[in-house]
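Sharing in case it's useful to others searching the archive later.

Someone asked me privately for the predicted structure of Chemotaxis protein CheA, so I'm posting the question and my answer publicly. Question first, with the sequence:
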Amino acid sequence: MSEFGGMEELLQDFLMESNDLLSDVDNKLVELEKRPEDRALLNDIFRGFHTIKGGAGFLNVAPMVTLCHRTENLFDKLRNAELQLNPEVMDVILDATASVRDMFGTLGQGLMPRDADGALLAALDAVLSGRMPQAPVPQATPATPPVASAPQRSDEPDWNSLYQAVVPAARTTTPTAPAPAPVEVVPAAALVPETEPVTAVAAASRAAAPAKNVTASKSASGGGHENTIRIDTNRLDMVLNLSGEIGLTKNRLTTLRTEILQGNNDSNTLRSLDEAISQLDLLVGDLQNAVMKTRMQPIGRLFQKYPRLARDLARQLGKDVELVLSGEETELDKTMIEDLNDPLVHLVRNAVDHGVESTAERIAAGKKPQSLIQLTAEQVGDHILIEITDDGRGMNADALRRKAVEKGLIDTEAANALDEKQCLQLIFLPGFSTKDQISSVSGRGVGMDVVRTNIQKLNGRIDINSIPGEGTRISISLPLTLAILPVLVVRACNQPFAVPLAMVREIITIDPEAIQEVSGNPTIVVRDEILPLKTLAGLLGWAPTQKPGFGVLMQSAERSFILAIDSFVGRDDVVIKPLQNIRPKGVAGATLSGDGSVVLVLDMEDLLTAKDGVSGMVKTSELITI
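And my answer, the predicted structure tokens:
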């Protein structure tokens, strides 16, 4: 039962907009620490925090008002140069914002938050009186985690061993407990003018007037995901206009259908029918794109969480780290943004904790004392490319190879056949670890194998490039949306199947004379690259009905191979429908073809790791003689 009576709607508006404001305040605080003399930045921070306090006051959330008021007094002293900003003062401020976020979580459950921790209030009072707190202030724990994480793994890779420094140096600071990840929020700041105060009162007044931006609800999906989304009304207007155009075209088709049923089949009527169908095809395509755009959100609303995360962890580890963001305006499906949070948190933490060196180690290696981590996003064709780059130790491919052999994950022969790029992919193997002991920071993430699994669930790919002594770049390639999947429709055993087009590099004809055996398995050489040949029928566990005529050169997360098929139908954009009550191995779902037949959409990564997929090779003689 909510403690806010009939104010639930105002409470939700307050939480939605104040969460965005607080994330913006956190990011500007990190910037202020770099530029403490920037009065304009400090004034922006003051206004944002004051707006949060005003909304809390309207809702009579006294504990939040008290905490915000004391923190606001601290900002006022900084503005008036009565107090000097230093890392200790910033720690207290950030602890206060974390406590406010914790109160947001309690409010989200319809409960009144408790008073702020006494140690935090004492620390604020000490700073306001010109004294520094004697002991570190406890970090506030978010009320709800952003995404459910996997249990702690003892086999998580030891990044201190993976990242090999050119000049060995010991870490000079004992790690403490990591800062908690920020709470997942529904961003809205990019659509709200910065000069307009955002409070519960403002939200109430806007409810009676035409809104510049609206909040559209969707069905609650559980799992901690938000069930609202911010949509620019310009995009909704486009959907409305296209719906009207489709209605007019439908009326035209109804009229033409009546004429044809009455026997009017002259050339003018048929030409009009063809024109109406073509018009409908264009409008439906435009409507589909417009609807997809209503789900697109700037990825910067996810990125905005990480400067605070990187700053807190770097300070705890005694490192000097700058996290630079770029491409925040790049748009991605909101559901994908939510599912990306956990993997990106893990990768950013690893880059800060293990990728970059301590200040002393960097100086000894002849590098700049400050480490640089870059988080970028850009649209490349019909995909989004996200990269996390650091200028730290880099990873040693030979060390990864040796450790994989030591743990029995691969044999010596297979290890010696791996090139440098394939060795870097070994960190994704389940059970791969070089860890001798678990520190308070390391060993608490989801594990790189789970990170890769999460990316693959989004039909994405993750890749690693690293140079020892120079740094590491982790690249994530994702489709723009999961609602529409570009596929290549192929045929095997007289049955159509759809494979993700993102994995397809090219289509080749299979010449039986070009098939060669390597270690008993069929392969084909394509431009000096030896690629294994796998039949789709073999991966499915079916007996082939004819000799494969074509091969689809495919690239999965860590391997390239040729998929032998009977024939192919062509490219298509499909909407995947889940199969009710069943989940066959290697099948992502189903769709309908143009002729109305059902086409299974294959999950190639799942299929390749399935039992039948492991034995999906056929003998060269069988490929030639069928």
